[in-house]
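Title: Prediction job returns without error message
Component: structure pipeline
Severity: low
Priority: P3
Assignee: unassigned

Description:
Job completed but the reporter wants confirmation the result is attached to the right record. Sequence as submitted:
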Amino acid sequence: MTRGDAPAARRGPSSLALLEGERFVCRLDPGRPLPAPPRSHRLWSLTLAHGERSLVAVAAAMPEGGSRNGPWRALRVGGPLPLGLTGGLAAAGVPIFVVATHDTDHVMVPAPVDGAAVAALRAAEHPVTGAAPGCPGPGAAQSSSKTVL
C-alpha cells in the first residue's frame, strides 16, 4: 500500500511546519522568459497550465512584471494531506492556496491571518512547529521559537 492508498480515517493528524518568510503568488506576463529557480530556496514553484504561468516564491525571487498576490505564509505538510485539514481552516475563515509536489504538500495562508490559521490547526489536533506572530506554542510552558526550513 502506498502513502496515498491509506484511508483518511487511519492517517490521523498531520504535522505541519510553518516555513520562515513570506511568499507571493505571481501571474507572469505571457511572452516573457520564464524565470530560473534560485540556487537556494525553501519553496519555489512555477506552474504552466492552460496558457497561464504562475510563480510562488519569496519577493526577492520574483521577476519584474506580472501581478502579485500576497504575502502568504507556507505550512509544509508532513505526510498525506488529510481532507479535514482544509475544512478546519475554512471553518475559521482562513483562505488557502495549495502547492503540491510528488511527495510534499504546502498549504499557504494569507500572512495577516497566519496566527488564526495556526490556532485553528492546533485546535483540530494538527501539530504545528514554528511560530506565527501572535500565536504562542500549543502549551503555556512551550516557547514560540521558529523552525527554519
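Comment from assignee: result matches the submitted record. The chain has a mean pLDDT of 80.
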